[in-house]
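Protein Record: Sequence and Backbone Structure Tokens
======================================================
Scope: a single protein chain, as residues and as a discrete description of its fold.
Tokens: labelled as protein backbone structure tokens, with as many entries as the chain has residues.
Position: the record begins directly beneath this header, with no further notes in between.
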Amino acid sequence: MSEIVKAIRQVVKSMIKPDLLIGTVKSFESVNWTISVELNQGGTVEDVTIRSVLNDDETGVFIEPEVGSIVLCAMADGKLENLKVVLFSEIVNMELMPKEQLKLRGDDFGGLVKLKDLENNLDALKQYCEAMKNAVMTGLNAVGASTAASGPNGATAFNGAMSSQAITFKDMENKNVTHG
């Protein structure tokens, strides 16, 4: 391509607004994050980009549209092979992969909890409480039967009071929000 043609394209490109096309999602390809779109004015375009960062496989916003949903696509250079999705009517999944840090709704909530670390911390707390219960029972038995609060009578009372007590944790994982 001659230098004159390149220069003319650069000048004209800054004056042209992108062409917007509406279409229906026919298929989704998860490896390259592309879709097949049947355009309302006719024809189907394959490998339409739905990635927010085009030159990086590791970062960006990755949005999987519902097959059969409507998308708005833009053509900045007038070429259908460079069609990009700019708006979705329905989303199945979304992955956010920032280069450094993901911030959800400011600082209101801190960060997502690493579930395995939380489980380990709670398990340590549970083991501590169980050990404390055993230590109190051992201590009461070791004191002897000199008063009702110590010795076998105290241990029986303590065991009776604790018999219905247990530490259990419900499933705390939010399966709709995950991190990797």
About this structure: The mean pLDDT is 77. Residues 3-97 form a domain with the OB fold (Dihydrolipoamide Acetyltransferase, E2P) fold (CATH 2.40.50.140). The chain is about 30% helix and 25% strand. The first strand starts at residue 19 and ends at 29.
